[in-house]
Amino acid sequence: MKKNIGPRTVGFPTPVVLVGTTDGEGRPNLVTLAWVGICCSEPPAVQVSLRPSRYSHAAIVGRGAFSVCVPSKRYMDQTDFCGIASGRSCDKFAAAGLTVESGPELGLPLVAEFPVCLECRLLHTFTVGSHDLFVGEIVSCSAEESVLDARGRLDPNALEALVYMPGDGYYDLGPRLGSSFEVGKRLMPHE
Amino acid sequence: MKKNIGPRTVGFPTPVVLVGTTDGEGRPNLVTLAWVGICCSEPPAVQVSLRPSRYSHAAIVGRGAFSVCVPSKRYMDQTDFCGIASGRSCDKFAAAGLTVESGPELGLPLVAEFPVCLECRLLHTFTVGSHDLFVGEIVSCSAEESVLDARGRLDPNALEALVYMPGDGYYDLGPRLGSSFEVGKRLMPHE
Q1: Is pLDDT at B36 greater than 80 in this prediction?
Q2: Which of residues 49-108 of B touch A (CB under 8 A)?
Q3: What is the ipTM metric for this complex?
Q4: How far is it, in rounded angstroms, from Cα B36 to Cα B67?
Q5: Where exactly are the structural domains of chain A?
Q6: What pLDDT, on a 0 to 100 scale, did the predictor assign at position A191?
Q7: What is the topology classification, in CATH, of domain B17-187?
Q8: pLDDT at B191 over 70
Q9: What is the pTM of this model?
């Protein structure tokens, strides 16, 4: 029997990504977000949610696009920093020692040091409460050669992925336990 | 310099949860989803996205609510199974050997064997493409005593959390690497 500890946003691991934008003067900026998730397969789309007070909010609306830059674990400090500092008062790329790379489809700022970055075209903006939910169609996925396998597909083990537990901190990705759409077949009723 | 491998929904770890509903005849059902993410802090809210063809889609709309049941890694097979089988043709709770527990606020089906389950009241339904995005306000968080610390807060290390890599499979949560809103302070410019 479980105990009700009240409504809260904890309980499962989430992604942690740096969302890249350019402001009205074309300056690249980053904001770290964990209120993020894939939300559609066709077209491939991702939701990122943030408070209207964040500097990146107006930049996403203004540009009608954003990037999703996926850090490897060695960039944990930079990831955390970009969630604490504000682009209003500092150049986060410079302060974090990260390099801007231009996205192939929309020219959005990507982080050169990170293994994977997505470019997203803003499809929808929905107000939920404290946060607005942006849905972006993924139009490119740029990956370092070092994280692609022999068939040119992303190798999850090569990402050195960072996992986030809300209200707590950052975790390493542990060992692979099993294949999706496979291990569950063991429980399929026999016809 | 990165290589553009085209738009796709891969690149970062995601949650993997079982969404619980009751159908028009009151029968409890579960569906496994990874297109899920927290999307608001006040009120606490979560987005879950699924295809209209899924049996649970009509159940979420009909009931105006859903639960989010978070598996521990020992339930990987059951988690995968509930993403393969359909509630139209089988009782997934029975087939997976899982026990229904009733949620404290909305009476939604929770999985007794799982460490954490949320109940959510449907706030919004947005059509994105192949998937509809449901936003649910989290109204309760039910946790096993075994995953609560001495102060009654969720202990992430006790969850034995399961992490998902889209297009690949299930992973263990690895070691804790650092505290959020803390490790990034090392990079703060000195005033």
Answers
A1: yes
A2: 49, 68, 70, 73, 76-85, 90, 95-97, 101, 104-105
A3: 0.95
A4: 12
A5: 17-187
A6: 54
A7: Pnp Oxidase; Chain A (2.30.110)
A8: no
A9: 0.96
